[in-house]
TrEMBL record:
Designated name of the protein: 4-aminobutyrate aminotransferase
GO MF entries: 4-aminobutyrate:2-oxoglutarate transaminase activity; identical protein binding; pyridoxal phosphate binding
Cofactor(s) needed by this chain: pyridoxal 5'-phosphate
Record-linked InterPro entries: 4NH2But_aminotransferase_bac, Aminotrans_3, Aminotrans_3_PPA_site, Class-III_PLP-dep_AT, PyrdxlP-dep_Trfase, PyrdxlP-dep_Trfase_major, PyrdxlP-dep_Trfase_small
UniProt EC number: 2.6.1.19
Domain of life per record: Bacteria
Record organism: Pseudomonas flexibilis
Length: 426
């Protein structure tokens, strides 16, 4: 009996909780670089990249070879029982890439949420404080602590009650929506005045470019003022680079371009080319505050994922993917701005490197998010063979996370499909 998306969806609905969302009613059968084929044999251009996980493309040959070689040696020991060199080598390589002219150490875990959870644990232990400041529209994960940090209740925390306390929300600067850098800094000062003294705050957690929040880029002067505020009050600055890291923005970590050095950096997603791996890297003396046994996990930093990540780093060097990211960003931004000139519903095109998005608003009015149209465009693009993702606080942002290894011709074909969707629907 041949498989179909419809019959598999029926099985899925019966077997999988409805809380596990699914953007496209498609079951993937196989993939290569920036192309995915479903179980019915239909081909799609992948502008989603597994939500920023496939910067080196689906099944990059070098990543596949590294994983196959590691499988021939060992797949698991638990690093805390019997260590293995790929873990240590990857920690060294990551520390060399994370911004900061100081000694660093690296912890490897499994998911982005786990990385952020551990960064908060480390910050609390290092400072002896418990409070954390996060930002409006931020996304940091779906575990309990990271849900407290995530600035979007629906759908991520809907019906789950109050999240862990000690988290305070500041404004993320956004010129389109009238939040200036001064406004954002003032919102932190209000927290200090009304909610928690600076001496109660362990860390400020920020995405240098918001992911789920809509690809808003933090202004350099805001980050500089944030750094100064942290230094003034003994607060640790945590850069959540889960989505921005591994070259998506044109530098390996976005903070390299934004001129500010964080105390701790979290990473995940594309670091291992599709295999589950994440981590925290930061100042050695901060990373060392927790006693043996306080960090880790059974599958944390698996040998398979470490081998994949080391291969990803080689691919970035050999194929000059950071330069490629910047070039892709320029191509995408130029094409989307042409589209914006034709369709006033596109209120803004923004991003950093190849992390590019456009916000849709009725008549271009930022106060009137065009979420319904956004959903229709994503669906129509799928019908035409293009996989897209939406995001943003109001679901009115279309984001592009295409693999950095996508051929130019395929990229342009995908952008042409997107333009067709606007011509038909906007």
């Amino acid at each position: 009996m041949s498989k179909s998306n419809e019959t598999l969806m029926q099985r899925r609905m019966a077997a999988v909780p409805r809380g596990v969302g699914q953007i496209h009613p498609i079951f993937a059968e196989r993939a290569e670089n920036a192309t995915v084929w479903d179980v019915e044999g239909r081909e799609y251009i992948d502008f989603a990249g597994g939500i920023a996980v496939l910067n080196t493309g689906h099944l990059h040959p070098k990543v596949v070879a590294a994983v196959q070689a590691q499988l021939g040696k060992l797949s698991h020991t638990c690093f805390q029982v019997l260590a293995y060199e790929p873990y240590v080598e990857l920690c060294e390589r990551i520390a060399a890439r994370v911004p900061g002219d100081f000694a660093k150490k690296t912890l490897l875990v499994t998911s982005g949420s786990e990385a952020v959870e551990n960064a908060v644990k480390i910050a609390r232990a290092a400072t002896g404080r418990a409070g954390v400041i996060a930002f409006t529209s931020g996304y940091h994960g779906r575990t309990m602590m990271t849900l407290a940090l995530t600035g979007k209740k629906v759908p991520y925390a809907a019906g789950m009650g109050l999240m862990p306390g000690g988290v305070f929300r500041a404004q993320y600067p956004c010129a389109l929506h009238g939040v200036s850098v001064d406004d954002a800094i003032a919102s932190i000062e209000r927290i200090f005045k009304n909610d928690a003294e600076p001496r109660d705050i362990a860390a400020i957690v920020i995405e240098p470019v918001q992911g789920e929040g809509g690809f808003h880029v933090a202004p350099k002067d805001f980050l500089q003022r944030l750094r100064a505020l942290c230094d003034q009050h003994g607060i640790l600055l945590i850069a959540d680079e889960v989505q921005t890291g591994a070259g998506r923005t044109g530098s390996f970590f976005a903070m390299e371009q934004l001129g500010v050095v964080p105390d701790l950096t979290t990473f995940a997603k594309s670091i291992a080319g599709g295999f589950p791996l994440s981590g925290v890297c930061g100042k050695a003396e901060v990373m060392d505050v927790i006693a043996p046994g306080g960090l880790g996990g059974t599958y944390a930093g698996s040998p398979i994922a470490c081998a994949a990540a080391l291969a990803v780093l080689e691919v970035f060097e050999e194929e000059q993917l950071l330069a490629r990211s910047r070039a892709l960003g320029e191509m995408m931004t130029a094409r989307l701005r042409q589209l914006q000139g034709k369709h006033p519903v596109i209120a803004e095109v923004r991003g950093l490197g190849a992390m590019v998005a456009m916000e849709l608003c009725e008549g271009g009015d930022p106060h009137k998010p065009a979420a319904e149209l956004t959903g229709k465009i994503v669906a129509r693009a799928r019908e035409k063979g293009l996989i897209l993702l939406s995001c943003g606080s109001y679901g009115n942002v279309i984001r592009i996370l295409v693999p950095l290894t996508v051929p130019d011709e395929q990229l342009q074909r995908g952008l042409a499909i997107l333009a067709e969707c606007f011509d038909e629907l906007a």
